[in-house]
Write the structure tokens for this entry.
Amino acid sequence: MSNQTEYGYPSVFDDIRPYTDTEIPAAMQRLAQHEELFQQIADFFGPGFEARNFRKTLCAIDSVKAFQWNVMKNISCGLIKKTISDFTCSGFENIDREKPYLFVSNHRDIVLDAMLLQYSLVVNGFDTCQICFGSNLIFSPLFNDIGKSNKMFQVERGGNRLDYYHNLAHLSDYMRYVITQRKEPVWIAQRNGRTKNGIDATDPAIIKMFAMSSGEDPVTALSALNIVPVSVSYEWESCDRLKALELYALREGKYEKKPGEDLNSIITGIRQQKGHVHFHICQPISEEELKAFSTMPSNAFFHKVAALMDERINSAFALTQNNYIAHDLLSASANHCSKYTAEQKEAFLRHLAWVDDCENMDREVLRNIFLGIYANPVDSALRIG
């Protein structure tokens, strides 16, 4: 691809690409002068946080790798110690350290799904990946600097149908360029936006978007991207109350996204206790598997690939006692009672008690929505068998 800029990327991608090493020192100087950043970190980590040392660390950083290792890795480690009781990863034997992959993950938390995968890759000796994030998450120059310093690239949201198509094509071109020419891995969610109801389902349009940038047939186009499904699960679902309230409002036809809502979800997801968090790197989607769908019409092909992704992600989802408790409560049964203790059920019921304080709402409906967030992954697993 021609017309490369001084930053090592084709200029056509200047609107979405992350920062390169040459841009990092200036970004670090801006971050070091941002008092809001220091205040937020100090509020989260408490008295042990030393602003002077952190500022000195930022000012000494001169590369993307240094930022990820000296800042993001340490922040991730601190977050795990403070809000996660057990952090586990599996499936790294399924991928090759020398191969760039397109990681396609279920999406439960705006920031943490990708952030914790980055941490998992680092501690397991893999290169970090570029991360796709929506332009709606650029709340300020501060978020822009943090994101682009952490290998995040931007996809435009909104616009008319022509804008939407152009943005998808641009995103597809960029991802293929990063994987096939820069030889860097990429992370993207399996759908536009987080899963709110606990049902992880890959949007076939996402799979179709992957193939847009290739003039080859769909099998060849997708094979070149080395697609790897990733399954992430949280014992205590990220933003579970906020998700339940949003789903309730949608059901009542009263939901309207408020200013600052995404930021509130990011902060809530970071601060809340998560219990056991598990990542599984699934088997890559092979060319042979794709060829099995090659005689199908285009739309059927992409739906089949999406279904294959869902099978891998849902079968690898680490169900916890909370999922089984919610399923039994929702079905008024004890079908899964061997999966949890009386104490664990009591803890979940205490977690559910907030519903009783919700005024001017149908509490039974809200309760069932909240339970569904935890129960639906059990049904997804049961459908796979």
Summary: The radius of gyration is 21 Å. Residues 128 and 211 are 23 Å apart (CA to CA). The first helix runs from residue 24 to 32.
